[in-house]
Design a protein that fits this description.
Helix content is about 25%, strand content about 40%. The chain contains 20 helices and 44 strands. The protein has an eight-stranded mixed beta barrel, surrounded by four helices. The longest helix has 22 residues.
Length: about 850
């Protein structure tokens, strides 16, 4: 057993004379001893077999084997462990053995199942026709651990193996299969093995029921064409690594030619597979700081690896793409970083965590719901960072936005300025934060052309309500230039490199530079980011050189500037829910932007206190937004541009829901080519005026005081005094120029004075339908023009219902219709109403529709045409 030599004292000292008998009965353990000074090594027969050696090693070879075994299992036919004994310096002695959990279990599956220690005996006879496969069971761990289930699986596998195949259990989930003189197709064999496992009937863990529907599959690495046993083992092991890199159920076959071609990649494949299987990810964190204060406001989690895996993030993503494992990367990234966030909650009290996402491999509902349940409100701290370079469908984008909105998470677009980046694509994503790509930032202090581009990008982002973040800032000059352009956030090596720990603050020197550069840039545009509970003095803000206010959420009060209009704009973040109080303010947009812009999907309550004035473009309410105006104060809105609006949108856009419930006065004045007082191109979401004194003055080519231009108008006015004055070629007081109008007016006093050519006081201009209901009020209407409809429409089908109302009309024009439709078919109903109608016209129509019913009950009529 032991190499003959004169001195066996060293061996017997550690193993004794009975060791040979022990090893003869139990093949799963072997011994070794080495005297480095004497240059002598003793290794018993079992250890030689376990080490996979053909002959007894010398000291040098034994040291190499032990060193390799201490670093990894690579190159060994079975999982091994070593136990070193306490020895004096220069002497090494110990055991090599198969761990208890991996000792061979005999299975009755219809094929020889041999111990791993005997497998080398079969492989010692290998030639170019020998096939060796290392197969790994994937699926339910309980089933894998149940011997009765393994019997079922191995029996199914053996049915598709060559008759001379031999099995050996490598571990609880992995088996060796070797077949001499193999002449078939290795790839087809791998498919047959996989098919046999997936379609077999397994007993459950109690051995009672057959499980015909299960998730078990097999991953296989196969080598064939190698003459040396060590080459067969190496190739099969590395083939399994590549198969595992593809995910459960994959397979790979290595011939000598393929092995030689890919051997340079094998180590990276092994590392990638181990990285995913063992979740050996770790993360460094790079601070993101405020461009005005230098304070850390967030961290970006950047992927790194543990242990001896030396793959960089780009290599990991390339391998994941190659093997179809990008989803696994996405799931690991989200899960790992959320766990880190959970363990370090105190460090994120006023900060957020940016997590990179692979948008084309978004988490399934099941996986995302698991994270929702596990981390709950912590998701509010997360900013999901996506790149535009991967196009995603509108449906997937809608699902992403829905998840973010539900959990109060934010979206950041990475690498803006490269790839698919463009205005329309950015608007699809509707991000809260946009990261300007480092390719635009690098050397920007010397590149005047790029300076023009980047400065315009930042202006556009701010006008869109987005926070602008400059990434890749690596020099003092780049930092100064980007701050000068008004960027909001800074990230880059110059500020701080990624660290394996969370920094609580950046370098004092760098922070001082940021504050200094911010102060120097204050002569240009600056954006003030309001926080919940802020009470903002506009005069002080202007003194500090701010030109706009960005409101994310919560309650914000604006005051000051009553005596002098401040050049200022207010933007509300997309999908935010906030309350803004205006207290004796007066401001106007310094450029061609709305005075107040509501973000898409936002809900805003605007409370007026004292006297307030907006003087440039009014309040923009996009289709998906909601605005409610209330308070005891007054509000004046002046809008004088080509396509203008007071509260709502331009004539080309649909407006969101607008609710006005003021105790004070609302005065809206518009002057331009196409003007809207309150409303938009389409008002299907509704304009509701619940109370207040409303005064609207509109002049231009085409005007609507309350309602829509070309779309549907859903309008409800009650408990109000409304005065409308219009001078326009084409005008509608309350209703729509060219769309269906459904109008309800209750408890009202309506005064309308309109002049122009084609005019309607209440209703639709022409060729449309809808309904008008006026109850418990008084209307005084004075209209002068060519074609006039006072209440109703022209050549349409608008039903008019009037109850307990006083209607006084005075008109001068070419063709005039009082109440109804002189050419159309709407029905007229009136109950307990008083009509005082005076028409000075060549073609007059008092009450009713040409082709509709007219039902007047308990009414008083005084209709005078040309008298």
């Amino acid at each position: 057993m032991i190499k003959e030599c004169e001195d066996k004292k060293l061996w017997n000292k550690y193993f004794g004379e009975a060791w040979e008998a022990v090893c003869a009965m139990w093949k799963n353990i072997g011994g070794f001893v080495m005297d480095k000074n004497a240059g002598i090594a003793y290794v018993d027969d079992n250890a030689i077999t376990l080490f996979g050696l053909k002959e007894r090693p010398d000291c040098k070879k034994l040291r190499e084997v032990l060193e390799l075994l201490s670093r990894s299992q690579k190159g060994f036919v079975m999982p091994l462990e070593t136990k070193l004994l306490d020895t004096p310096e220069g002497v090494t002695a110990g055991f090599v053995y198969i761990p208890k959990g991996h000792i061979h279990i005999q299975h009755d599956c219809g094929r020889p199942v041999v111990a791993q220690s005997e497998l080398m005996g079969y492989l010692s006879k290998a030639d170019e026709k020998t096939l060796l496969a290392l197969v790994r069971l994937e699926g339910d761990e309980k089933l894998i651990e149940a011997d009765i289930c393994l019997d079922s699986i191995l029996s199914a596998v053996c049915n598709v193996l060559p008759e001379n195949a031999v099995l050996s259990q490598h571990s609880s989930a992995q088996f060796w299969i070797t077949a001499a003189d193999f002449e078939g197709d290795p790839k087809q064999l791998a498919k047959s093995i996989k098919h046999s496992v997936e379609n077999s009937c397994l007993a459950d863990e109690f051995g009672i029921h057959d499980l015909a529907d299960h998730s078990m599959t097999v991953t296989a690495g196969i080598s064939v064409g190698f003459a040396a046993p060590s080459d067969l083992i190496h190739a099969a092991g590395y083939a399994l690594y590549e198969a595992k890199a593809k995910g459960a159920g994959g397979s790979c076959v290595f011939t000598p030619e393929q092995y030689a071609k890919q051997k340079n990649e094998i180590q990276d494949i092994r590392a990638f597979s181990e990285l995913l299987d063992k979740n050996l990810f770790t993360y460094h964190f790079q601070p993101i700081v405020s461009a005005s204060t230098g304070d850390i406001v967030a961290y970006e989690a950047l992927m790194r690896t543990k242990g001896d895996i030396s793959l960089n993030p780009l290599q990991i993503l390339e391998s994941a793409s190659r093997f179809g494992r990008l989803y696994d990367i996405e799931r690991a990234t989200i899960g790992n970083t959320l766990k880190y966030l959970s363990k370090h909650q105190s460090d994120f009290e006023n900060k957020r965590l940016f997590i990179n996402s692979i948008s084309s491999h978004m988490l399934t509902e099941e996986d995302f719901c698991e994270y929702e349940n596990d981390f709950g409100e912590l998701l509010e701290k997360v900013v999901i960072e996506m790149t535009e370079q991967t196009e995603i469908s509108d449906r997937d984008l809608e699902r992403i936005r829905s998840r973010l909105d539900k959990n109060n998470m934010n979206l950041a677009i990475d690498d803006y300025g490269t790839g698919y980046s463009n205005t329309s694509n950015l608007m699809r994503y509707e991000p809260e934060i946009v990261k300007i790509d480092r390719s635009l930032v690098t050397g920007i202090d010397k590149n005047h052309k790029m300076q023009k581009i980047v400065s315009k990008i930042i202006e556009f982002l701010h006008a869109s309500g987005c926070t602008a973040l400059a990434e890749g800032v690596e020099t003092k000059e780049e930092l100064q230039t980007m701050i000068g352009f008004g960027v909001d956030l800074i990230q880059g090596y110059y500020v701080s490199k990624p660290k394996p720990v969370l920094l609580h603050g950046i370098s004092d020197n760098i922070k001082d530079e940021i504050i200094q550069f911010s102060m120097e840039a204050s002569e240009g545009q600056k954006i003030y980011h309001a926080a919940d509970g802020d009470c903002i003095d506009l005069e002080k803000l202007r003194h500090d050189k701010y030109s706009s206010i960005f409101i994310g959420s919560g309650r914000v009060t604006l005051f000051g500037g009553k005596e002098k209009s401040m050049p200022m704009t207010v933007a509300v973040k997309d999908r935010s829910d906030c309350t803004i109080t205006l207290k004796d303010v007066s401001f106007e947009s310094p450029d061609d932007q709305p005075d107040i812009r509501l973000g898409n999907g936002s809900k805003v309550k605007l409370i007026c206190s004292g006297k307030n004035r907006l003087s440039k473009r009014g309040i923009l309410v996009p289709e998906s937004a909601e605005l409610e105006i209330s308070g005891s104060g007054d509000l004046e809105v002046f809008s004088e541009v080509l396509d203008c609006y007071g509260i709502g949108t331009t004539h080309k856009q649909s407006c969101g829901r607008i609710v006005i419930a003021m105790a004070g006065d609302l005065y809206v004045k518009t002057n331009g080519e196409n003007c809207i007082g309150i409303g938009g191109g389409n008002c299907e979401k509704g304009v509701v005026i619940k109370s207040g004194a409303i005064d609207i003055n509109a002049s231009g080519n085409s005007c609507v005081s309350i309602g829509s231009f070309h779309g549907k108008a859903e309008l409800m006015l009650e408990n109000l005094y409304c005065h409308i004055k219009m001078s326009s070629d084409v005008a509608v007081g309350v209703g729509s120029l060219d769309g269906e109008s459904n109008i309800k007016i209750k408890n009202y006093k309506l005064d309308s004075t309109i002049s122009g050519r084609n005019l309607t006081a209440v209703g639709t201009l022409h060729n449309s339908g809808g309904s008008i209901e006026m109850r418990d009020g008084r209307a005084d209407i004075v209209v002068k023009g060519q074609n006039i409809n006072c209440i109703g429409t022209r050549n349409g089908a608008v039903d008019c219902s009037l109850y307990s109302s006083v209607i006084k009309i005075y008109c001068e024009g070419g063709t005039v219709s009082g109440v109804g439709d002189m050419m159309g078919s709407g029905n007229i109903t009136a109950d307990r109403c008083s009509f005082d109608i005076t028409l000075q016209t060549g073609d007059g129509w008092g009450i009713g529709s040409k082709n509709g019913a007219c039902d007047l009950a308990d009414c008083v009529k005084d209709i005078k045409i040309n008298r």
